[in-house]
Specification:
Length: about 140
């Protein structure tokens, strides 16, 4: 659903990454495997910048030669979808809190990529926007 392509760069015996779709996302590691494992956290941190600045989160594009795909966890992908649906509807966090008869704090947690919200809460928020969550299984 949300798999971003990252380019791996080698420098001074370690590795770092860049992402065309989310230029704010970076990660590092002593090996390519460590770098790719760290890339999820780098993407989540960068996505937080988009939410903090009120910007829509870009959808991932197809990888080009030499890029590696980094898959966002399902809950994070659902939260990204929620955020983008809010942006499309012109809805602020306070508007969503009112629509859900909830507190601002609960809505903040729904949009916090590091908070382990219940998926049912994200589904309810999407439903308030006239959207529903769809899950699919793909070959690894």
């Amino acid at each position: 659903m949300y798999s971003y392509a990252v380019k791996v760069h080698a420098e001074a015996g370690s590795f770092w990454s860049s992402c065309r779709d989310i230029p704010e996302a970076h990660s590092a590691g002593d090996t390519v495997e460590e770098l790719l494992a760290n890339a999820v956290a780098g993407l989540e941190l960068a996505l937080t910048i988009y939410v903090d600045q009120g910007r829509p989160i870009p959808l991932p594009t197809l990888p080009v030669d030499g890029e590696h795909l980094v898959h966002l966890p399902t809950l994070v992908a659902a939260k990204v979808s929620l955020w983008n649906a809010m942006r499309e509807a012109g809805m602020r966090k306070a508007d969503l809190a009112r629509a859900l008869h909830s507190s601002q704090t609960k809505v903040d947690r729904l949009l916090d990529f590091e908070h382990s919200s219940k998926i049912e809460q994200v589904e309810a928020a999407l439903a308030a926007l006239g959207k529903r969550l769809s899950v699919s299984v793909e070959a690894a």
